[in-house]
Design brief:
The chain has helices spanning 2-20, 24-27, 38-61, 72-79, 86-105, 126-144, 149-158; strands at residues 64-67, 115-118, 124-125. It is mainly α and 159 residues long. The relative contact order is 0.21.
Length: 159
């Protein structure tokens, strides 16, 4: 998990300065036709960090994990991320992910195969959840245009 943690830190260190260069106005524009804005995508990634933080910790403390599903559109609507200051979103995203990298690095090896069920999905291991978290993060950072293509290629090779 330490290698995964280090990769997550590399992603943050690469993406954060690129995110900070995006203007408040540009952060509100949809990145894909009819899709979410950069603000909404970073808000979604903050939700992902928050949900996965709870999943990782709870799975490390229990024999198995059953966790509720995630309503991404409802969450974006309720949190009104389109109306939040862009720099605040970037600050929170970067700090939360640095902390999550710390948590991932310290997951007990004996718990990495803990069965985790999210919503009605099939059970997966804690190790898979952590790896998939980084894959998901890179996917959305790529949509925003701030991901390092070398890190995306390296992460795809891991899966």
């Amino acid at each position: 998990m330490r290698e995964l943690s280090e990769r997550l830190l590399q992603v943050i260190d690469t993406a954060e300065p690129r995110l900070r260069k995006i203007s408040e106005l540009d952060s509100t524009v949809s990145v894909l036709p009819g899709g979410w804005s950069r603000k909404q995508l970073i808000g979604h990634l903050i939700d992902s960090a928050s949900n996965n933080h709870q999943r990782f910790v709870r799975a490390a403390l229990q024999p198995s994990l059953d966790f509720p599903g995630y309503d991404q559109n409802g969450s974006a609507r309720v949190q009104a991320t389109q109306d939040v200051d862009w720099q605040l979103l970037v600050d929170l995203w970067a700090a939360y992910n640095r902390y999550l990298a710390h948590v991932i690095a310290h997951l007990p090896a004996s718990k990495l195969e803990t069965a985790c069920r999210i919503g009605s999905g099939e059970a997966v291991s804690l190790s898979f959840l952590a790896t998939d978290y980084l894959t998901h993060l890179l996917h959305h950072l790529n949509q925003i245009g701030v991901a390092d293509s070398n890190l995306i290629t390296a992460q795809t090779a891991v899966r």
